[in-house]
Amino acid sequence: MLYNSTQNKNEVVSAAQAIAQGISKDGGLFVPQEFPRYSEDDFKSLLKEDYRGRAKKVFSDFLTDFGEEEINDCVEKAYTAEKFDGSNPAPLTYTSLNGKELNILELWHGPTCAFKDMALQILPHLLTKSLKKTYDGKDAVILVATSGDTGKAALEGFKDVEHTKIIVFYPVNGVSPMQKHQMNTQEGANVKVCAIEGNFDDAQTGVKKIFTTSDISEKLAENNMLFSSANSINWGRLLPQIVYYISAYCDMVNDGKISLGDSINVVVPTGNFGNILASYYASLMGLPVNKFICASNSNNVLTDFINTGVYDKNRQFYTTVSPSMDILVSSNLERLLYKLSGDSDTMTAQWMTALKTVGKYEVPDEVKTVIKENFFGGFCDDLKTRETISRLFEEKHYLCDTHTAVAVNVYEQYVDATGDNTPAVIASTASPYKFSKAVLEAVAPNEELPANEFDMVDRLNELTGMDVPAPLAGLKNKTARFSDVIESDDMKAYVLKSLSIE
Ligand SMILES: *Cc1c(COP(=O)(O)O)cnc(C)c1O
Asked: Which of 64, 169, 197, 253 is deepest in the core (most CB within 10 A)?
């Protein structure tokens, strides 16, 4: 299987090349030229597999330049019961709220307690193998822009991985204290963490700029290095996310919640559009999805886009209690648009140029219609987010984090608006303890908050009786290693300095 750039179809690469390079030279994103299509028999055999078995099947169909042993090795190393707190890395919890069934797909049982682990525990293995195939002997420099969770998950995945260095940039006031402490205490000889003055989009734009500036790339090449990306623009990030939608479907069939062939809806709290895009890709492979429900917080640029076909990032930016979705430029939408425009690289390139220059584009009516048929967009502000956490806890004693609460709330809006009761898989993207302050405010609104994040974790644990994930509990005693804060204009210089190649 080959991959091409969303902005230039003539830029064709292997899977290994796509993963090693991260982003295409023209600024486009790599996409598979076609999708494998699973028959009923394929699904029947997937039903018998565990998560790892299902992952191996999906990976082998997309990574055709990888050997079976290489894929097995990646999967077995990434999804261990030890790292994911049990044998199923992505378990479902069946609950309900106010009469509506919720099938909650918990994607946060990995080492950093957010769904990013599902991809970032395997990406380093895929990347080192890809490098061997394509750029043997070179070191990959991983640049990450993060709204909080990607940074930590990438650091944890890449720490002390041979032939890699990783530099993470995060918005100085745009992540939770827990996320900041998780990153600043990161261990590993090949890691670097730096805050920037600005928001996530500034960090992401800065990283993209560095990637596509040729004099920096040349400087790296002279020093036997090359850039790669652990952001969800990298194909190696998206592919692992397809697996858990297929796996959740199989689990629901095995649990008797649905029959093989039945449709489901998926509900995804969305920021950069990677997670929901993975579910869309799964549907192109034969997963029967009726509706993709895209849930946003007050940064509701995607809600407006789904409803109007106009993407307009020129709007107020809000810092919310679901910071991992505080994003106005959703990078992976580019991949959806490419698909929906009938694989048109010229149209995709035009839209992306317009986004860069005037911050806005509008898709034609045919594309609007397809979006409307398949997607529902909704949003939920901080007040309703807290209120949803509180209701779900009061009614079912199920504690969810702020991002998941946005998804649950938008799902309720969807069912109220449409009456569609198709069983819905709701992606739960973080442990509630990762966002203890907002979650505590939600379940105990009349209490005075403890002074620091760790006391909040303890209080939340006392109140709810829910176990604190071991990786978060262990953070308390760690001291910070990193404290750099820079202007976003200085990111380039910072990278060169960190690599000692000024
Ligand atoms: C990254 C993240 C999201 C958004 O996912 P995208 O793939 O960027 O749309 C949602 N919730 C949490 C907790 C996250 O870390």
From this structure: 169
CA of 167 to the centre of ligand 1 (A): 20
Q: Is 473 left (phi over 0), alpha (psi -120 to 50) or beta?
A: alpha
Active site residue 116: yes
- How far is residue 300's CA from residue 381's CA, in Å, rounded to a whole number? 10
Nearest atom in ligand 1 to the alpha carbon of residue 278 is: 7
Q: Which of 9-18, 338-347, 439-448, 473-482 has the lowest mean pLDDT?
A: 473-482
Helix (H) / strand (E) element for 299: namely none
Tell me the C-alpha distance between 257 and 110, whole Å. Answer: 25
Q: What angle do CA 165, 157, 280 make, to 5 degrees?
A: 115
Give the number of C-alpha atoms closer than 13 A to the C-alpha of residue 369, restricted to the C-beta side: 3
Of all protein residues, the one whose alpha carbon is nearest to atom 8 of ligand 1 is 272
| CA atoms of 123 and 234, how far apart (whole Å) | 9
Measured from the CB, is residue 114 less than 6 Å from ligand 1?
yes
Ligand 1 centroid, distance to 429 Cα (angstroms): 7
For the domain 78-113+236-435, what is the CATH code? 3.40.50.1100
CA of 240 to the centre of ligand 1 (A): 14
Average pLDDT value over all residues in the chain: 95
Among candidate residues 44, 77, 83, 116, the one labeled active-site is 116
Structure tokens at 399: 């504690």
The candidate with the shortest Cα–Cα distance to 268, out of 110, 118, 104, is 104
Write down the pLDDT at residue 28.
Answer: 95
pLDDT tens sequence across 276-332: 999 999 999 999 999 999 999 999 999 999 999 999 999 999 999 999 999 999 999
**Average of pLDDT values for 122-147?**
91
Amino acid at 304: D
Domain boundaries in the chain?
78-113+236-435, 436-473
d(CA 116, CA 153): 6
pLDDT at residue 424 in the model: 98
Q: Find tokens 């082998």 and name the residue.
A: 60
